[in-house]
Amino acid sequence: MLTKLHIQNYAIIDEIEIHFSDQLNIITGETGAGKSILMGALSLILGERADSSVLVNSTKKCFIEGVFSIQAKTAVTTFLQEQEFDDDSELVLRREIAANGKSRAFINDTPATVQQLKQLASLLVDLHQQFDTLELGDSDFQREVLDALAGNESILQQYKKIFQQWQQASRELMLLQEQKNAFTKEADYHQFLFDELNDLSFKENELEELDQELKILSSAEGIKSALNKVFYTLRESEQPIVTTLKQLIQQLQPFADVHKDLDGIITRLQSTQVELQDIAGEIDHINDHVQFDEKRIEWINQRLAEGYKLLKKHALQTTNELLTLQQELAQKLEAVLNIDDAISAKEKEVSTLYKDAEKLATQLSQNRQKKMEPLEADVNRLLTQVGMPNARLKVEMKTVALHAYGLNQIDFLFDANKSNRFEPIRKVASGGELSRLMLCIKSLVAASIDLPTMIFDEIDTGISGEAAKQVGLIMKTMAANRQIICITHQPQIAGKADTHYFVYKEIVGNAVKTNIRKLDMDERITAIARMLSGEKPTAAALENAREMMN
User: Fold this and answer.
1) Partner residues linked to 415 by β-bridges
2) Has the keyword ATP-binding been applied to this entry (predicted)?
3) Is the same domain home to 501 and 529?
4) How far apart are CA 515 and CA 502, in angstroms?
5) Which H or E run contains 357?
6) Which of 17, 90, 183, 246: CA 20 to 30 A from 312?
7) Residue 7 lies in a domain
């Protein structure tokens, strides 16, 4: 529950601190005194958008802090642990707005996002503001009411998880089917390209090697002539170089012992002779393998022509790139064969998930169905209590296609005058009727959810007299098990308060400021009497105020 609210420099609030009780807290004050400003400040720590226009004094930052008691509140503790915030029995939510409009949020003094603040606040507080009765006409809100009463939260979480898996699997199936259609359209063309490459059966680096071989074959005669001349000069001329070197070595050999440098010269000449002999042998070997082959040249030219044609067609440069393309085409053709198996497996997965989701959705529907008549009966009873004896609520549930919350479309229908003509709430209910209807519904839902604080900002719009008294009694009943904070203009409701706060304006310096104070018993009687009869309450009004409080 909210134990303390501290506000600094927000609109015309200089600084106030409010300590709330754990039961029914009533806030009253003249129109324009600043009650709505309080709710605006409170909404900031509940995750609403910040606006720098609330900074009247631009030399100081705006500061709003709420302290909550969260003992035995498991959902809050779990959230804090999962989001890695400090976990204690006391929770502090804070918003700061700088003069430049930059907003910062904190959870237990740790920086947080506004979204985290909003998520956490939804576990702590239900804030009902003046125009929130419009929610009554919203189908999501109506479904949430029925699910809360039916205790569907756990099943709904399971269902949502499986529904999302079913949606994801359905999207994947659709993608596979689209891929198959695309594959089918392109399969013939891919097959043609693959066959074209497969028929030629190129080997790795083949075109590059054939190009080199063609150059050799085309120059075969010139190469053989040059090789013959070199071989002849080295080995077979009238004065072969190898033989000449041998003779030179023999001429120097006798003097090797006489001159110390000749031995090295002889060794080098011997090495040169051996190297030239090897070269001559290798030239002879090469010469034997260099042959002019006209048929081979013709075949290579044809092979290269086919290869270059494909390189140009596919904008490629090498044989290996053609082989890579051939492999890719083979994979695409294989995918066409395999995709049917993938589609079949995915169809089974989709079908299984749908059946699982449908089973849980049916369970949700059954639970909702069981609570429809009790909800109608309880709301209609409370409507009579709050001064609407002729009004009736009817819950209509239709079966529709599987969606994020099951198989149902839920509508709250309303008949204000026992005409038996039930219409959607948003079409037929007035503002006052909506306010009382919302309170009746929330009082029933409150018993089914673990929400420690409920805040009502002028939910009593459009009612007075006995109806206002009954609204106060309903709030008093709700406050037995949770904290209620209510801004009201109705003395009948104010009289039911466990703690009564009064919002007022005062002149501080030359500026108008909003302030708030907790009223004691006598001040409460006077405040309620003023709500009944005006600024100067009569003795009868004072007596009436005492009666309302008792």
Assistant:
1) 392
2) yes
3) no
4) 8
5) helix 319-385
6) 183
7) yes
Torsion sign, CA atoms 455, 457, 459, 465: positive
Report CA 407 to chain centroid distance, whole Å.
25
Q: Residue 104 sits in a domain of what CATH number?
A: 3.40.50.300
Residue 15: name the closest of 518, 519, 517, 514 by CA.
Answer: 514
Give the whole-angstrom CA distance, residue 50 versus residue 40: 10
Tokens 């037995």 label which residue? Answer: 480
Q: Does residue 17 fall inside a structural domain?
A: yes
Residue 38 phi/psi, 5-degree rounding, is: -60, -45
The helix (H) or strand (E) run that includes residue 7 is strand 2-10
User: Are 120 and 237 members of one domain?
Assistant: no
The confidence band for 158, taking pLDDT boundaries of 50, 70 and 90, is very high
The C-alpha atoms of residue 407 and residue 427 are separated, in whole angstroms, by 25
Cα distances (angstroms) measured from residue 124 to each of 107, 480, 483, 521: 13, 17, 11, 30
pLDDT of residue 79: 87
Question: Coil, strand, or helix at residue 399?
Answer: strand
Q: Could you give the residue ranges of the DSSP H alpha helices within 123-205?
A: 139-150, 153-200
Residues 207-221: tens digit of each pLDDT: 888 888 777 777 667
Q: How many CB atoms lie within 10 A of CB 61?
A: 17
- 422 has pLDDT over 60: yes
Tokens matching residue 9: 């420099």
CB-CB contact of 407 with 365 (8 Å):
yes
Please, what is the Cα angle at 513 between 509 and 515, to 5 degrees? Answer: 125
State the number of CA atoms in the 13 A half-sphere of 121 facing the CB. Answer: 26
Both 104 and 228 in one domain: the answer is no
d(CA 513, CA 504): 8
Q: CA separation (Å) from 363 to 150, 371, 464, 540?
A: 11, 13, 42, 58
CA distance 50 to 103: 7
- Which residues, 6 or more positions from 320, have their beta carbon under 8 angstroms from its beta carbon? 204, 205
In this structure, the answer to whether residues 116 and 233 fall within a common structural domain is: no
Domain count, the chain: 3
Q: Does a structural domain hold residue 416?
A: no
* pLDDT at residue number 135: 56
Check whether residue 530 and residue 482 sit in a common domain.
Answer: no
- Say whether both 499 and 524 belong to one domain: no
What's the rounded Cα separation, in Å, for the pair 531 and 550?
Answer: 17
